[in-house]
Design brief:
Helix content: 25-40%
Largest sheet: 6 strands, antiparallel
Strand order of the largest sheet: 1-2-7-8-10-9
Strand content: 15-25%
Distance between the termini: 42 Å
CATH topology of the largest domain: Dipeptide-binding Protein, domain 3
């Protein structure tokens, strides 16, 4: 899932061993058979194998929690609760999409990848000392698919059957079709303890700390306020190459705050240790304090090369108001990104022009070559601009004067059957006389200062747009039930998009409560393009098919694109050591450690 520009051919030759029947058996698997790390690798390149263990790191979380079950729709799970579990394989952060054995000591696939088999490590153990078994793997898969979030049904939709084929071997057989990603998707399976959940309701929220197998377990907590995870001293997998140099903190604590403003003040007061800053304004203005000036509180911008995805105002297409493409296009003109970036963001952001921004998967120009070949069968079924124009969101000069944009928006709205009522001065439907009004639902108060100027511009068109900010629990409920008009949504992407795109965009998930198809998109062309993307036989085909999907989504005007960063903004108290190498995926906090000398120096300053 991550870009690694240099592929070592010598290493890739040893990535897997071809069995007599042509199957590949190895310590890991890559999307296109180009593993960077050989079978005898000692650790990932972006960790320090000599990193000391010990100490505590305190994180901040926003909102609340009432459950330690992150796999179901119900409740607000503690954000760290999944880290008590291990998966069959684990990814590296410096390759496009490669995974290496964690619970599994080996992975086997046939040349066509129509199935995958994993052999579990004999030493794999739950925290109660019982072994991790094939039965656990099968039960976890079946339970997540039948009782978990809709995401799991989408992600595992192409699995036909799972069966035990040996004392420590489990085999997943796939439905017909080309889907090279499926073995890696199954490798990401979170394995849960069957014996622990026997007699418990998996579909219910719980504050009983569940049993896990991973490097940490839940130690202490106060529901809704804080949780603490302690490193497992006798963790079965601590010496595996994929874990060397990682999981270095003895304790990881998560303190919950109502909003970011309070959380930033808490960081500056030393109440917690590290923050990944989301707000451009806060990054530019909130850290001018003595601790930053004397180096006690570090403030760094750390480059990454990971895809930025798409953050945007997202229309709910289930609402009749947004079903006309011209209306959706018109609503993009009043959003003045250039003014926002200059006035509110201190020029830190880049405008998003793709659902796969900051990567080679982002479309540009007009389609040619393989890109055009993918799209050609859909000519006449998609907007003509897909073939003739490069997508560009509406732009301004940043002065705040957007009269030209408003004029274009007004023309589109009039063509779609909306005009100004001369009496009320409101935009109304010329047939039904319904006023043009909607609600923008927010969960993060940070977005109010961006959204309110947007609504003022909409008001100049005669549109009433109300902004409503709700708490995390209410937001999740309304989001899951698709009870909104417009929200701010973020579709995260990897360098190797695949089966997750089904839940993002395809028709079967448009009406499934809790799914990631928040748009309610139902389009046969999009469905077909997603199927083609998933079946891509090589990297070049994957890129071309992703470009095609990107173009069709962009020209559908389903969202108003916002912005992205190509670096991580990190503020942290100067008590940590970290590796000298940052991988393409960006900051890897699990490879940092507490430096006793820095802790002592920091305490002396305080």
């Amino acid at each position: 899932m991550r870009i690694h520009l240099v592929v070592c051919l010598t290493v890739s030759l040893f990535a897997a061993v071809a069995a007599a029947d042509g199957n590949r058996v190895g310590h890991g698997i890559a999307m296109y058979d180009d593993l960077k790390y050989g079978p005898d690798f000692k650790h990932f390149d972006y960790v320090d194998p000599n990193a000391p263990k010990g100490g505590e790191i305190k994180h901040a979380a926003i909102g609340t929690f009432d459950s330690f079950n992150p796999f179901i729709i119900k409740g607000n799970p503690d954000g760290a609760s999944a880290m008590i579990y291990d998966t069959l394989l684990t990814p590296s952060a410096d390759e496009p999409f490669s995974e290496y054995g964690l619970l599994a000591e080996s992975v086997e696939t046939p040349p066509d990848r129509s199935w995958v088999a994993f052999t579990l490590r004999p030493q794999a153990r739950w925290h109660d000392g019982q072994p991790v078994t094939v039965d656990d793997v099968i039960w976890s898969f079946e339970t997540l698919r039948s009782k978990g979030q809709p995401f799991f049904r989408a992600y595992y939709a192409s699995v036909d059957k799972v069966e035990k084929t040996g004392e420590r071997t489990v085999k997943f057989t796939f439905k017909p079709g080309n889907n090279r990603e499926l073995p890696l998707i199954i490798g990401q399976l979170v394995v849960l303890p069957k014996h622990y959940w026997a007699g418990r309701d998996f579909e219910a929220t719980t504050l009983d700390p569940p049993l896990g197998s991973g490097p940490y377990k839940i130690d202490k907590f106060e529901a809704g306020r804080w949780s603490s995870y302690r490193r497992v001293d006798d963790y079965w997998g601590k010496d595996l190459p994929v874990n060397v140099g990682r999981n270095n903190f003895d304790v990881q604590r998560f303190d919950y705050y109502r909003d970011d403003t309070v959380a930033i003040e808490a960081l500056k007061a030393g109440e917690y240790d590290l923050r990944l800053e989301r707000s451009a304004k806060e990054w530019a203005t909130a850290y001018d304090v003595p601790a930053v000036r004397d180096g006690s509180l570090k403030k760094e911008e750390i480059k990454n090369d990971r895809p930025a995805g798409m953050q945007a105002y997202a229309f709910n297409l289930r609402r009749p108001l947004f079903q006309d493409r011209r209306v959706r296009q018109a609503l993009g003109y009043p959003f003045d990104f250039e003014w926002s970036n200059r006035t509110l963001f201190y020029g830190q952001y880049t405008r998003t022009r793709s659902y796969f921004a900051n990567s080679d998967l982002a479309s540009s120009g007009v389609p040619q070559g393989q890109d055009l070949a993918v799209l050609e069968p859909f000519r006449g079924k998609v907007p003509d601009e897909v073939f003739s124009k490069e997508y560009e969101p509406p732009a301004t000069d940043g002065s705040g004067n957007i009269r030209d944009n408003l004029r274009k928006a007004s023309e589109l709205l009039k063509a779609a059957g909306w005009d100004i009522d001369p009496t009320t001065k409101m935009l109304v439907n010329t047939t039904t006389h319904q006023p043009f009004e909607f609600e923008i639902l927010l969960v993060d108060p940070l977005f109010e200062r961006i959204t309110l100027p947007f609504t003022k511009n909409l008001e100049r068109l005669g549109i009433v747009a109300r902004v409503r900010t709700v708490d995390a629990a209410q937001y999740k409920k309304r989001n899951d039930d698709f009870d909104f008009d417009v929200i701010v949504n973020n579709w995260a992407q990897s360098t190797s998009p695949g089966n997750e795109q089904r839940e993002y965009w395809t028709s079967p998930f448009a009406d499934q409560p809790g799914s990631s198809n928040v748009l309610g998109l139902k389009d046969a062309v999009v469905d077909a393009l997603v199927d083609q993307l998933i079946a891509a036989p090589d990297r070049a085909s994957l890129v071309a098919r992703t470009h095609a999907l990107d173009r069709v989504l962009l020209w559908g005007y389903y969202v108003i694109p916002q912005w992205y960063l190509s670096y991580d903004r990190v503020a942290y108290w100067n008590k940590f050591g970290r590796p000298s190498v940052t991988p393409a995926q960006g900051v890897q906090i699990d490879s940092w450690w507490v430096d006793p000398a820095k802790v002592a120096a920091l305490q002396q300053k305080k």
